[in-house]
Amino acid sequence: MRAIEIDTSALFAPIVINGRTVQNRLAVAPMTRISATEDGRASETMADYYERFALGGFGAVSTEGIYTDQAFSQGYANQPGMSDEAQAEAWKPVVAGIKTHGALAIAQLMHAGALSQGNRFRHGTLGPSAIQPIGEQMAFYHGRDRYAVPDAMTEEQIADVIDGFAESAKRAITVAKFNAIEIHGANGYLLDQFLTDYTNTRVDRWGGDTPNRVRLILETLKAVRAKVGAEVPVGVRISQGKVNDYQHKWVAAERDAEIIFGSLGEAGADFIHVTEYAAWQPAFTQGGPSLMQLAKRYAPRAAILANGGLHNIAQAVAALDNGADIVTIARGALANPDLPQRLSDRRTLNEFDPAILAPIANIKRTELAM
């Protein structure tokens, strides 16, 4: 237990993102919990799990990564999807529970690409290039052994990926009634595989220099925007590190940050969600700016969501003076689904227990009793 002894008032100021008011600066970060049905429908357990964060006072609640098509996008067994009407309908109770308590409901859409380790639709994986991902599959998501070598994607397959994101975004807004869309361009999944130099060795318009490697993220953003309209908040999650490579840094350092964040800002991203192991640490060189500071510098009109160790409340408060507009919390939210209420009431916070995610990272009934 940790007592709250600092001024947290800044965390409770509202903020408007593309016409939508978020009641405070505390949001639940996306966390993979593999608790959907086998055919990808959101479950009653998931509805209970997500609602408790909104009930606990979080201003926004992001879903785990939702797969976008019935081809190669699924990454994990029991991952939820948005690939058809039945899956979209199943999200309705989840979204309604979040909205009941005034929180913004954000659907995070993802394509696993070469990091897929559980796909009921296809054998094999796709990536920008036929390069085996480093590291091993994640056991707490039912993974085992090394990742497969992906097939290098064709132009037709790339077009299908973009269309899958766009159609899923439309279902998320029009059927499931989410408030906002987050495109998962981080953590080593497909869009990040295109952005990353060593996983993308293509020599066409999707590979080579950074402006080419960021192209798929931008084209996906534009396609999603075209489907959901100008009034829906649409953002992108960006990282350097990956689930299979925590230490990765962009090769051109701040020049890459300028290109990536600048192009996202120019393309009209309403928010950019940056995630690092420790959000406040320099992104590249000792004493240099953090990734959240660089995002704000090069995309000043976008709201910046920052993730990474910000369950440390002193760091969360400081982040609002260092580039972040909203802080997103993962481990701290699992330990304290009512974290905003605890801060407001000056109550102590529970420490995170890693056993919550063991041996499999599905939602435990014991969590819902917290």
Question: What is the topology?
Answer:
Blueprint lengths: L14 E3 L2 E3 L3 E3 L15 H12 L4 E8 L17 H6 L1 H9 L3 E7 L15 E2 L23 E2 L2 H20 L5 E5 L5 H6 L14 H4 L1 H14 L5 E6 L14 H13 L4 E5 L15 H8 L4 E5 L5 H7 L6 E4 L1 H5 L3 H6 L20 H4 L2
Parallel strand pairs: 3-4, 3-12, 4-5, 5-8, 6-7, 8-9, 9-10, 10-11, 11-12
Antiparallel strand pairs: 1-2
Task: Outline the low-pLDDT stretches.
Answer: none
Biggest sheet: strands, sense, closure?
Answer: 8 strands, parallel, barrel
CATH superfamily: Aldolase class I
Give Rg in angstroms: 19 Å
Number of strands: 12
Structural class: alpha/beta
User: What's the average pLDDT?
Assistant: 97
Number of domains: 1
* Shape call: globular
**Given the structure, what is the number of helices?**
13
Topology order in helix (H) and strand (E) letters: EEEHEHHEEEHEHHHEHEHEHEHHH
The percentage helix is 25-40%
**Order of adjacent strands in the largest pleated sheet:** 3-4-5-8-9-10-11-12
CATH topology: TIM Barrel
Strand content: 5-15%
Q: What is the CATH first-level class name?
A: Alpha Beta
Termini gap: 15 Å
CATH architecture: Alpha-Beta Barrel
